[in-house]
Amino acid sequence: MHILEAQQLTKIYGHHLSLKKALTNVSLSVEQGEFLGIMGPSGAGKSTLLNLLSTIDTPTSGRVMMDGRDITHLKGHALAEFRRRQLGFIFQDFNLLDALKVRENIVLPLAVNRLPVDQLQGALTHVASVLGLSELLDYYPSELSVGQRQRVASARTLIVKPQLLFADEPTGSLDSQSATEFLQYLQTINGQEKMTIIMVTHDAFTASFCKRILFIKDGQIFSEIIRQGDRQEF
Ligand code: ADP
Ligand code: ADP
Questions:
Q1: pTM of the predicted model, to two decimals?
Q2: Which SMART domains does the annotation name (predicted)?
Q3: Does ipTM exceed 0.85?
Q4: How distant is the alpha carbon of residue 173 from its chain centre?
Q5: Is any atom of ligand 1 closer than 6 Å to the C-beta of 201?
Q6: Cα→Cα distances 188→70, 124, 163, Å
Q7: Do 171 and 180 contact (CB within 8 A), yes or no?
Q8: What is the C-alpha separation between 150 and 96, in angstroms, rounded?
Q9: Per residue in 17-58, pLDDT tens?
Q10: CB-CB contact of 40 with 69 (8 Å)
Q11: How much distance in Å is there from the Cα of 213 to the middle of ligand 1?
Q12: What distance in Å separates the CA atoms of residue 107 and residue 123, rounded to the nearest whole number?
């Protein structure tokens, strides 16, 4: 069952005198439970593709379907609701609130929805254990390493159980050991929580944690690797 489908996506930035074709007729399907990597050099169109798949931006032509529903041109309240209920985002920057403890940062999206305290606590305990944060809940973000802060940001995203998780260069500010650890947590989230993940990176090591990798260059998909068995470097 395809959770996400892109049909003939083309994106042209700018107007008349300065047109930039960032993406040309890109089509792809993502299955429920996949851990998909989108890899390519700087300027290839990775962020553009991720932005189109995740309703952050709209294509010049083509469409994006989620669970068979056309989500290409959702607007206003419908768009905000759709994103809030279905999508999660992890970026290179964490945007944690320094005045709040780790536990408060993580439950923030649920607290906004005024969930009962016992449900909040249950969700927090679960996500903290999945991301290896159980011992860190009473610290402040400034007391943590960057790797730990990235996991806190991820926990805050995951606590609402999005259908689809989008990650744009999530290890961009991590050293290689924290990056490896973080990517292993993403694999756990993918395997154990059956979370569908789409991750953009220019880095082969980071991409090697994905189950399937699409390579893009000059705004087009030019090859695909499907990984069998354990992670391998290439
Ligand atoms: P990547 O994420 O692979 O580095 P991007 O999707 O950011 O690539 O960019 C693809 C191409 O489109 C690049 O040439 C980039 O300079 C251009 N581009 C991206 N965003 C814009 C924009 N808002 N306006 C004009 N050109 C853009
Ligand atoms: P990334 O590292 O994720 O590829 P970039 O540094 O390429 O991000 O781009 C950062 C932001 O600037 C993006 O939102 C992108 O759309 C925009 N951008 C990239 N290239 C251009 C450009 N030539 N003109 C205007 N905006 C651009």
A1: 0.88
A2: AAA (SM00382)
A3: no
A4: 15
A5: no
A6: 30, 17, 16
A7: no
A8: 9
A9: 899 999 999 999 999 999 999 999 999 999 999 999 999 999
A10: no
A11: 20
A12: 8
